[in-house]
Amino acid sequence: MKKFIISALCLLVTLGMVIIGNTKTLAASNNNITMNGKAYLGVPEKDWKSFKQVEEVNAKMDIANFEIESKTINIDGIISYNGVNKPFNISTELKKSRSIDGDLVFNSEEDTEIQLVHGSIRYNTPEKKVLINKKLTGKTTLTLYLFDKKTRDLIMFEQPLQGHIKDQLEDIDYLSLEKSLTDTWAHKVVGPTVVNDSNMNISVAEDWDTAQKTVKYWTAWGDTTHSAKVTAHAHTSDSISDQGYIFSSLTLEQYVIPGGETQKEYGWSNIWIGRDIPVSNQWTLYDGQTGTRDMISKLEYSGNWSSNSLSNLSIGVSYGPISYGYSFKDYVTIPKNGFHNVYEVPGTDKPYQTEMTFTGTYLYDSSEKYYSNIYIITQGNEGEKSAQSWWRAEFYDSYNSESLGTEYLSAWLYYNSHQTN
Description:
The radius of gyration is 30 Å and the shape is elongated. It is mainly beta. Residues 1-30 and 320-334 have low confidence and may be disordered. Helix content is 8%, strand content 55%. It has helices spanning 2-21, 23-30, 163-169, and strands spanning 33-41, 55-69, 72-81, 84-93, 95-96, 104-106, 114-122, 141-148, 153-160, 193-201, 206-219, 222-236, 239-241, 243-257, 265-266, 271-273, 279-286, 295-304, 306-321, 327-332, 340-341, 349-362, 369-377, 383-397, 402-418.
């Protein structure tokens, strides 16, 4: 009998531990959340500089399910505003905030009619991070901003974070999370306005040329700035005897300044380089005052870029008499990171111009770049000669699928050419 009672007590204790251990999950599933917010109807496609340009109405979100599992956040609910009810559900990855250490951000990249353009969980929320409820400054908050692409309605919710959500956050390994590309969201709602468009050349044996685009995404809370700068760089030796290398690259630098702030987020922007119009590079050798050009013997390309499934590289080589005229001949395929012979048959026609087009590739963030290098053989008279590396780079609004214009960058090199034999 005593054994039975003890066994029964053990069973009850065990069941109790199981129930207690699952309280967090059960609470997360059964606690509905109601969020009150604002909806801004008919947001302009760009240059939204005043609340007078939209109609403001109250909005409500009834969340039936809010769960955090490992690195994933799942939200299901119904949004109500302006007399309509719209179902909403997402399952997306939690990431580290780019602007505030310790905070979390998330958004939906799915191409749905109603998109979560920004979500965040902030623990000591700065005033600049709350837009519709300044009373939340300094508190732990949950923020959800949604955008209906068809009606162009922006629906915004901000409120204190509920206890059962805080419990779920305790199980997250924050250090293992990826860092968000950006905490900004304006580029997902309004189109860009170009405010900076510059091209600078500084021309020897080393040269640079830069081009920059800066755009602002205007909302009624202020402008969010995105900027991208590409730099064409070329260099070689002061003097080339018989044969030598000439190098060129195209690199990308980016930053974002969130609306109403001044601190820059470096490393990424909504502006990509090369999408509709592929990046291309052309090398041309000139004779200076010597009367004879040197010739291109080998060609190499390399780098680190993003590409789609249709990416390919086209290489054109120009041949012609050393001192005048040229015409493009065969397009050839060459391996990446390895020199390819472009001159194989001796004769009077020498290659002194090449052109390559990086179809289906683009620069996405500041870690990416292109390299285009040539190997030359000196020809004819000695003296100062030159080489030009010419890049074509399209600036592209990646979220709104809009070209921001194409820039042409040119880096010139001057070197002393001579032969020892």
